[in-house]
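Q: Structure for this?
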Amino acid sequence: MYWIQRRLLFVRFDAGILPDNRASIRYAPKYWRSILPTGVGFPDGVAVDPFCGAGGNAIQLAKTCKVIAMFIDETKITLVRHNAGVYGCAGNVEFRQNDFFTGPSGQQANVVVTSPPWGGPKYLLEDSYSASVLCEAYGGGEVIGRIAKSMAPKLVLHLPRTVDKSECVAIAKMLCFTRIKFEDNFINGRLNSTTVFFSL
Ligand SMILES: C[S@@+](CC[C@H](N)C(=O)[O-])C[C@H]1O[C@@H](n2cnc3c(N)ncnc32)[C@H](O)[C@@H]1O
C-alpha cells in the first residue's frame, strides 16, 4: 500500500528518492507537511529526528529550521543526504550516525520530531496500540520519551492511529511533561496515524 502511495507522499519521488525500505515512504515530506504547520514551526530553532530513516520528517523539517538527522546505520546516511539533496535542503541538515538507545544523549535541540519504529504492520490487526510496543526491547514509549526529553524540551511522536491515548497521557505525567496534544492525520480522507505533542 505504501509503495502504491509513493508519488502521492514523496512528490519528487521520480527525481531520484531512495527509500530505505518500501514501508519508509509513508513517512514522507508531503505527509509531514500536512502534519507540521499547526504544532511545529521553528524558524530559529533546531529539531532532531533520532530515527530519521529515509529522511521524510527530516526533509520537511529542514524547510523551516536546522535539523539534526540521526541514523543507526552509518552506511545509510548517504541515502538520507541524497534524499535531502533532491529536495534542496541538505544544507540545513546535520547528519549523524547514532543509536538512539545507546548513543550519547544530552540537550541539543528545541524539539525532537520523530517516527520511532512501531514494531511492524501487526498494529493494524489490533483495536488499540500500546506505546509499550515501541522499541519494546528497550523499554517502550516511556524510555523513548525519557531519552528524547534529555535531548529537547518538546517531543513530537508520529504514532499509529489506534495508539492508546490514555497511556500517552500517563507517560507524559511520568516524564513531567505538563502539556500533551493529539492530532489525527488523514491521507486522502482516511485516518492514517496520530501525532502526539508533548511539552514542558
Ligand atoms: C519508522 S522508521 C522512520 C522513518 C523515517 N521518518 C523516514 O522518513 O524514512 C524508524 C527508523 O528508525 C531506525 N532505527 C531503528 N532502531 C534505531 C535506533 N536504536 N536508533 C536509531 N534509529 C533506529 C530504523 O532503521 C528506521 O529507519
